[in-house]
Design a protein that fits this description.
The complex is a heterodimer of chains A (524) and B (276). Chain A is α/β, with parallel strands linked by helices and 524 residues long. Chain A has 18 helices and 20 strands. Chain A has 3 domains: 100 residues, 2-Layer Sandwich (Gyrase A, domain 2), CATH 3.30.1360; 143 residues, Rossmann fold; 193 residues, Succinyl-CoA synthetase domains (Rossmann fold), CATH 3.40.50.261. A 6-stranded mixed beta sheet of chain A has the order 10-9-11-12-14-13, sandwiched between helices. Chain A has a 6-stranded parallel beta sheet with strand order 16-17-15-18-19-20, with helices on both faces. In chain A, strands 1-3-2 form a 3-stranded antiparallel beta sheet, with helices on both faces. In chain A, α6 packs parallel to α7 and α8 packs across α11. The longest helix of chain A is centred in the first third of the chain and has 28 residues. The radius of gyration of chain A is 24 Å and the shape is globular. The termini of chain A are far apart. The relative contact order of chain A is 0.08. In chain B, 46% of the residues lie in helices and 17% in strands. Chain B is built from 11 helices and 9 strands. In chain B, β2 and β3 form a beta hairpin. In chain B, α3 packs parallel to α11 and α7 runs antiparallel to α8. The N and C termini of chain B lie far apart (67 Å). The chains are: A alpha/beta (524), B alpha/beta (276). The interface between A and B is large, with 35 and 50 residues.
């Protein structure tokens, strides 16, 4: 029997974002079915009544009172969630108090508080992000602009201004960077080392950095440039400047460039710069027409994992050739056959449900040559004209249409949980393909957030293969092993990279023919 | 009893709304009490049952606001603390707020005819979605009724939609209130006769606001019905060029967690309705 619990805080105000976050946290509490946190105006009390959340206690609350209403499977769960709400509200009030006393409110104020600061990380809505970035540059600060929705004209002007001042202008839409050993934005805990990265992709950078870390190699500097930097309009302004910076950096022994294929004139400029670089380079600008090749000291690769492997080999002065899986071939066949055993006859569709845009892009690029057209919401389409139709779908759940009114899926699992349930309801879907991104800034327990949805999807009386990769390290706050184990308990096959996970998904959906094709192209 | 003789903090009021200035000048010695305290604003509930919001330097975030040269340190003010007026000063325990020489800001939104700059800025902007409650079935229904009422000059439709939005949704000022304030700004600016022709609309909305929303939401609504708005709303509604409107929109979107976006949603709703 379901139970409700209510917490009424008289004359307590909180802003919308705080209340949304509070309600979401309560909804994720074990046994909680629904939770709401609202001011008890008559309209909001009516909303609660429609959801069967209006208790007699909530009915007594007035428009200036905060009501937290919880519905749970059992009274104990409801009581525990209510206690958690009390705890969260208390913590919020303490944080607010501290913020009021300590947090600076302007860049100038922050600079006065911390005179030695050399970088501003700006994360404000796009409409006024450019103005804040201009202020920071005027103060002589390097800028990491986390915000998106910045006009491309503003991006060009900011990057030109930064170039004149000899500063870095990372972004807009720059999610990840490491400067001087400091992780910025969404970043994994990785060691310092010899590899310098220039990345127009946050999750692409994270995948390469974590795979390097797994092999004991680290990052000297990683400079994010923003997803549009290598487009025709921005002209690679920051990519070229970042390459100059890495060339001059004594700790950087090899340079890795990560992103999507540049506009033709930008490609020429980047290639010329790399050719003149006094250091070897690995280029992972992932696109449909990109072929792996070696041109002197420049190695071009077709996946993020290959970027890592080619880098390790180049640092060791060793030869390198791409392989499909790090598991022994016999083990791969055993796992694929086990996954295929329970599938129903007929088409076996893949649903790639991604938090990382570049990881989704990479998966689509791997799947299409093996399985045919892949439908995606990626822009521009990863896999060309065929991406407008087909049995298989890869969805970037971080795209704008999925983040209206909620946080990015690396923080808020709601969209992915819903997408998993939707996919499980489609008869033709046989394989779910997922990424789980760890690190500073990501959700506290991303695997735990989606595992119940995976368990529910696999418990619907039919087989559903779940194939995933975890982008992270053991030193990340969430712990790579813990997150992997949680996904495995939910029935997922967890592979060490997104590229391997996509290939495994293709094998499960396509069977022996795909295995043979992979064998012909790469070492299994 | 311990008498505090030291540590009195003096803060200057730099700017205040014309309505606030008049109310303070006419206020009795026992002005009121501190109503609520936030990191960036303090609300004072006055003897007349209305609020005055105190915040830091910058544009007035509400038509009933006063901008101080700095906010008193957090913890210095607590809800319930009494506020007294002594000449052109407000006196609280350990704190004096002095409004002598403060700039008096006109928060009335003047009527004008050309909405093209605002329309262009709102049309081209990819507005944040605002609060989730504004996309709930109840809110969408209310927005439809409000827009239809405005479009067809149907006062009952306007009241019907407005009453469903009042007090609806998350936040210090519920999202529905912000949306309604945005719509009212557009009406005051570009169709002032619409409200003047139907005084019953303002009366009905005001009555609902007094009972149906938070104290802060009520204050915004009552001022909006009287044609008085925050400086960010005034700047956007009265922008003469598309560029100025875009800049003002950017400023508005900084307001609150989603308040600015919710207000912009209401302005867009109002514009689309009157354009149709």
């Amino acid at each position: 029997m379901r139970a409700t619990a209510t917490l009424v805080k008289r004359s307590l105000y909180a802003d919308s974002v705080a209340l949304l976050a509070l309600a979401r946290e309560l909804r994720s509490h074990p046994g909680v079915v629904e939770a709401a946190a609202l001011m008890a105006t008559p309209a909001n009390r009516a909303l609660l009544a429609r959801s069967d959340l209006l208790t007699p206690e909530a009915e007594t609350a007035g428009p200036n009172d905060l009501v937290i209403a919880i519905m749970a499977e059992a009274p104990a769960s409801a009581a525990l969630a209510r206690a958690r709400a009390e705890e969260l509200l208390g913590a919020r009030e303490r944080r607010q108090e501290q913020a009021g006393r300590r947090a600076p409110r302007t860049l100038d104020g922050a600079r006065r508080r911390l005179p030695g600061a050399s970088l501003a990380l700006i994360s404000v809505p796009g409409a006024w992000a450019a103005a804040e970035a201009r202020k920071a540059l005027r103060l002589g600060l390097h800028v990491m602009l986390f915000s998106d929705h910045v006009l491309v004209e503003d991006e060009v002007a900011l990057k030109q201004q930064a170039a004149r001042q000899g500063l870095l202008m990372m972004g807009p839409d720059c999610g990840t960077a490491y400067l001087g050993g400091a992780p910025l934005g969404f970043a994994n805990a990785v060691p310092r080392g010899r590899v310098g990265l220039v990345a127009a992709s946050g999750t692409g950078l994270q995948q390469v950095a974590t795979l390097l870390a797994a092999r004991g190699e680290g990052i000297s500097e990683a400079i994010g440039v923003g997803g549009r930097d290598m487009g025709a309009e921005v002209g690679g302004l920051m990519t070229l400047r970042a390459l100059d910076a890495l060339e001059a950096d004594a700790a950087t022994e090899i340079v890795v460039v990560v992103g999507k294929p540049p506009a033709p004139p930008v490609r020429e400029a980047v290639e010329a710069k790399l050719g003149a670089l006094g250091k070897p380079a690995v280029v992972a600008l992932l696109g449909r027409d990109v072929k792996g090749r070696r041109d002197g000291r420049i190695i071009t690769v077709t996946s993020l994992e290959d970027a890592c492997l080619a880098t390790i080999a180049a640092l060791a002065g060793a030869a390198w050739s791409p392989c499909a899986f790090s598991l022994p071939p016999a083990e791969v066949r055993r796992r694929v056959e086990a996954a295929r055993r329970g599938l129903r006859p007929g088409p076996s569709a893949i649903r790639g449900l991604y938090a990382g845009g570049t990881l989704a892009h990479e998966a689509a690029l791997i799947l299409e040559p093996l399985l045919g057209p892949v439908l995606t919401n990626l822009s521009p389409a990863a896999a060309g004209p065929g991406s407008t139709g087909g049995l298989h779908r890869v969805v970037d759940l971080g795209a704008g249409e999925y983040t209206v009114g909620r946080a990015h899926p690396m923080l808020d699992p709601t969209a992915r949980v819903q997408a998993i349930a939707d996919a499980a309801g489609e008869d033709e879907v046989a394989v779910l393909l997922l990424d789980v991104v760890l690190g500073h800034g990501a959700a506290a327990d991303p695997a735990g957030d989606i595992a119940p949805a995976l368990e529910a999807a696999r418990g619907r009386g039919r087989e559903l293969a779940v194939i995933a990769s975890v982008i992270g390290t053991e030193a990340d706050p969430q712990g790579l092993a813990r997150q992997t184990a949680r996904l495995e308990r939910a029935g997922a096959w967890v592979l060490p990279s997104n590229a391997q996970a996509a290939r495994a998904a293709a094998c499960v959906a396509g069977g022996e023919a795909v295995m043979e094709q992979l064998l012909a192209e790469r070492r299994l | 009893m311990i008498t505090r003789v030291a540590e009195r903090d003096f803060v200057h009021v730099r700017r205040l709304g014309v309505g606030v200035a008049r109310r303070l000048e006419a206020a009795p010695r026992a002005l009121g009490r501190v109503h609520s305290v936030f990191a960036r604003a303090v609300n004072v509930l006055c003897h007349d049952g209305r609020l005055v919001t105190l915040h830091g330097p910058g544009p007035l975030a509400a038509p009933f606001a006063a901008g101080l040269d700095r906010l008193p340190r957090l913890g210095a003010l607590v809800p319930g603390m009494s506020v007294e007026r002594a000449g052109e000063r407000l006196v609280l325990d350990g704190l004096t707020l002095d409004w002598r020489g403060a700039e008096v800001v006109d928060t009335a939104l003047a009527a004008a005819g050309d909405e093209s700059a605002l329309a262009a800025a709102l049309r081209e902007a990819s507005l944040p979605a605002g609060a989730a409650a504004l996309r709930s079935p109840v809110a969408l229904d209310a927005r439809r009724r409000l827009a239809a009422g405005l479009r067809h000059g149907d006062p009952r439709g306007v009241v019907d939609g407005a009453l469903r939005l009042i007090g609806l949704g998350e936040g210090l000022t519920p999202a529905g209130d912000d949306c309604l304030v945005g719509m009212l700004a557009v009406v005051h600016r570009f169709r002032p006769d619409a409200l003047a022709r139907h005084p019953d609309v303002a009366r009905a909305v005001a009555a609902a606001a007094r009972e149906g929303t938070t104290a802060v939401g009520r204050e915004f609504l009552l001022h909006a019905l009287a044609g008085s708005f925050s400086e960010a709303v005034i700047a956007l509604a009265s922008a003469g060029t598309e560029g100025a409107a875009r800049e003002a929109l950017a400023d508005l979107l900084t307001m609150g967690a989603t308040s600015g976006a919710d207000t912009a949603v209401g302005m867009r709703l109002g514009l689309e309705a009157i354009a149709a």
